[in-house]
Each structure stands twice: as C-alpha cells, then as structure tokens.
Amino acid sequence: MTSGAAATSPAGLPVHVIAREIAARRLSPVDLVEDCLARIARLEPRLHSFVAVHAAEARLAAEAADKAIRSGHAVGPLHGIPVALRRAIRRRAAGAGGAGCLAVRRSRRR
C-alpha cells in the first residue's frame, strides 16, 4: 500500500487510494470497516460526531461487498467503502434523522 502511518490505518487514506487498494485486492472491505470502527471508538468520546454507529450492519455489508468483489461482481469503484451519513439526511431504516436540522424539522410537520 503506502508507507508510514497511513499504511497501518487505511481509514486515513484518501478515498481514491482506498478504492484502488480494494480493486487490487490489497485491502478488504472487512479490514477497512474494522479499521473505521476502531477509529470511531477511539475518537468518538472526544469528538461526539455520531448519534448512532451501526457496527453490525457495517460488518455485514463489508462481508457482502468483500464476497462480491472477490467473485468479480463489484458494482462500482466505491463498492466496499463505508460511509457516514450526516444526521440531516433521512434514513427510513434507522428512523427519521434531523438532529437540529431546520429543513428536516420543517418537513416532519407536513
């Protein structure tokens, strides 16, 4: 991959590098998700950036992406890369978002 601290923490790499490493099978989505979850666990007590972390779902999605990529069924260059959603984005599966976002509060009144 690369040298230095980034080599030990794929979550710190730019997304284009992560995508290249996953496509080349030098990095698995499972390892990437575990690294991201470890980083969240380490930094979240200080940053308070997340309302909820869906670790189990992230692990399942990473395992599915890894299996698909290994069998040649990647669906695009970002397949296998985890994302964090800002709470102002509505997600039906996890309940309504909002967290103080005026636009979301207004849409709930309708």
List strands and helices in order, with pairings:
Blueprint (H helix, E strand, L loop, with lengths): L4 H4 L6 H9 L5 H19 L7 H16 L31 H7 L2
Helix pairs in contact: 3-4
Condensed summary:
This protein is mainly alpha-helical. Helix content is 50%, strand content 0%. The chain has one domain.
Characterise the protein shown here.
This protein is an all-alpha fold and 110 residues long. The chain has one domain (5-108). It contains five helices and no strands. The protein has helices spanning 5-8, 15-23, 29-47, 55-70, 102-108. The chain is globular and about 40 Å long. Residues 1-6 have low confidence and may be disordered.
Helix coverage percent of residues? 40-55%
Total DSSP E strands: 0
Low-pLDDT ranges: 1-6
What are the secondary-structure elements, in order, as H or E? HHHHH
Shape: globular
The biggest beta sheet, please? none
Mean pLDDT: 83
Number of domains: 1
Q: Counting H and I runs of at least 4 residues, what is the number of helices?
A: 5
Provide tags for this entry:
110 residues, mainly alpha, 5 helices, 50% helix, 0% strand, globular, disordered N terminus
